Amino acid sequence: SAISAAWDQWRVLYVASEMSPAQILRRAMRFTEGDAIPACFEILEAGYGASVERLVEMISESIDDRRTLVVLDSISSFVDQ
Asked: Is the bond preceding 20 in cis, omega lying within 30 degrees of 0?
């Protein structure tokens, strides 16, 4: 969904808690079958167990006036486990 949204000109903030940016990009490249990942696809590293406050801070610092899809991967790895 995130790559498809980026192809459709959405800005994508992919907030990761379990995988490194390199792992996410490898997975995205498999999905695109080697095509380039759109530049509007951005990865933010939150780390396992990030608090709600930290997530809001990270996302708020990255949001601008473009239409944006925020992906939290994986939601079960965030917030007061």
From this structure: no
| SS3 at position 58 | helix
Task: Evaluate whether 36 touches 25 at the Cβ level (below 8 Å).
Answer: no
Mean pLDDT over the full length of the chain: 86
Residue pLDDT, tens place only, 19-40: 888 999 998 999 899 888 999 9
Residue with tokens 């903030």: 13
Polymer length in residues for the chain: 81
Contacts by 24-33, CB closer than 8 A, 24 or more apart? 24/73, 28/2, 28/3, 31/3, 32/3
CA–CA gap between residue 11 and residue 53 (Å, rounded): 22
Kindly state the tokens that stand for 77.
């790895």
Give the closest residue to 79 by CA, choosing from 23, 15, 11.
15
CA dihedral for 41, 7, 31, 72, sign (positive or negative): positive
